[in-house]
Amino acid sequence: MRRLYHATANTLRGLSFAAKSEAAFREEIILLAIALPVGVFIAPSAGWYVAMVTALFVVMAVELLNTAVEKLADHITPEWNAQIGIVKDMGSAAVFATLCAAGLIWLVALLVRAGLL
């Protein structure tokens, strides 16, 4: 039980840090807050709704991982470094890929709901 308490505290501390320091994470929180109720009306079924919401949580998880990599890279060398720049760019690309996937899931759900697919 003690481990669970500490793990939860660490999780909340990480989420709090991300919300305070990362504009992209704050934007994703706002997107999620809007998407949760809107998705109920867009989703063709409960299964679609779960997939749509899960896709947004995956975006947020990858954003958190990207932020962790960036913070670690900045700690290793605060000066500009070409290789670290590539690592950061790849993290950003990972976030972009998950955003595209989430957008595609939401688009297909909307098209199915509209009877176009």
Q: Any overview of this molecule?
A:
The protein has 117 residues and is mainly alpha-helical. The chain has one domain: Helix Hairpins (Orthogonal Bundle). It is 88% helix and 0% strand. It is globular.
CATH topology: Helix Hairpins
Tell me about the largest β-sheet: none
Determine the strand fraction and express it as a percent band: under 5%
Q: Determine the fraction of residues in helical runs and give it as a percent range.
A: over 70%
Structural class: mainly alpha
Q: Count of helices? A: 4
Shape descriptor: globular
CATH domain class:
Mainly Alpha
| CATH architecture name | Orthogonal Bundle
SSE run? HHHH
SSE layout:
Layout: H1 2-21, H2 23-42, H3 46-76, H4 82-113
Helix pairs in contact: 1-2, 2-3, 3-4
List its salient traits.
Helix Hairpins, 0% strand, 4 helices, 117 residues, single chain
In short:
The chain has helices spanning 2-21, 23-42, 46-76, 82-113.
